[in-house]
Amino acid sequence: MSLNKHFSRELIEKTNFLQEISIFHGRQAPEKGTLVGYGALIEALGLPMPFPNTLALISEKRRQYRVPGWIIFTPRHKPQDFLYNHLVFSIKYEGINLLFFKKLFESVDEIVIEELVRNEPLSQFSRRIWFLYEWLTQNTLNIPDLKEGNYISLLDENLQYTIGKGDNSPRHRVRNNLPGTINFCPLVNRSEKLEKYIKEDLSGKTTSLVRNVHNDILLRTSAFLLLKDSKASFTIEGETPSNSRATRWGKVIGQAGNHPLSKEELLRLQQIVIENDRFINMGFRKEGGFVGEHERTTGEPMPEHLSARWQDLDELLDGLVKTDSKLEKSEFHSVLTAAIIAFGFVFIHPFVDGNGRIHRYLIHHILAKMKFTPQEIIFPVSAAILEHIDDYRKVLENYSNQLLDFIEWETTQDHNVEVLNDTADYYKYFDATIMSEFLFDCINYTIKEIIPEEVSYLKNFDQMKAWLDDNFEMPDKMVALLIRFLDQNNGTLSNRARSKEFSVLNNDEIESIENQYQSIFL
After folding, report:
1. Residues 6 or more apart from 378 whose CB is under 8 A from it?
2. Do 397 and 443 belong together in one domain?
């Protein structure tokens, strides 16, 4: 456990932030250089928070470039080794990190922040720091309201995705364009992958795709994808549901977007997901929670993810619901909204059971509510996630594993966990960039692979059925059974099927059917 100090003005003035590195906390730098920005500040001040996914480094070779996990700057970008200069560098080149600023403000005397702002009160960076202090802490600095100067945006639209114009704060002459509320505001950094996906207009591609499909095929495709997605969501949780249970959850998915998100709606969804509540405490947790295993001999918890404290659930879920409403009514991108809300929910983990399926339902809900998906079809997001299950786990673990170092907990008598320190901020202010990229990958896979494959299969099925009707006058039930057997055996009919279900067919007829199937499907 890394515990931060409380920094007075004198201690801040004596702190050295710059350090030369080639390896930093197990991360291999692309070259030897000087760590700067958020990474340097978190390290020097011992702030209790994960390091950013991307760290900033000053190159000794006078080169500027990006590689995974690092952004390299030239010596001319090197800030003077004072707190304010590092903050300016971080805001200017790395964007706003809300968790960092919250932990910073908890770790330094208020007078330190006040003096930073008073030194250059009209500076755009001072005003941002000033606004963030008062917004995050809900405390007011002893600084008079600004009476002059143009309004500046809090988030730089070139670095991070914003809510648009936002709300003006006359006191700081800052435009608050944060895509969230004080109790829930994950941020998404711009990346090449996200920019590429947004420019591709996947929503428009989906509309074009379904527009060219006959209505009968589209309805049957949608029905199949609902069931496929429902079963996939259970499979991800390690369950094998009955067809009736999968169908019931599929119907719920099909209604996504019809009910506004609220705490009551989340409770309703849990009641649908958990059919047998004999052994589960329903409703929002009144105890600790974790994802992981128990040690086999002692029963001790072995957490891979620690859920939010149950005492914080009201505040966190109120924030999540309000942020969802704010983003749904704005021009914020629907896929980014879905990633922020759905992954935020599963990190909070408000229920004893059912969190994973509701987390994936929320993706459906937001994409439908914000009209990303056409009304005629449901996106089988869970099916796409199942196809990329290893990447999905890595995305979840990317943040969860890092948090374990900053959460103090102990084992309870019933082999659960009890969190001992204040952890709410970790669930309010996380970086949702990787989650957004993953969700876009899944949606892209759905559009390019899953939906076209099912549409193509149904067209081939209809062609095969018509041929069988013309040549054998089989009843529909037998046609479906025959095609299913051929599907399962790569276009040939097994000896068992020849001798039982289709014993009335002779060898020449079976060969003809197999040839026809292979010409259509394979």
Report:
1. 222, 225, 226, 229, 253, 254, 256, 364, 368
2. yes
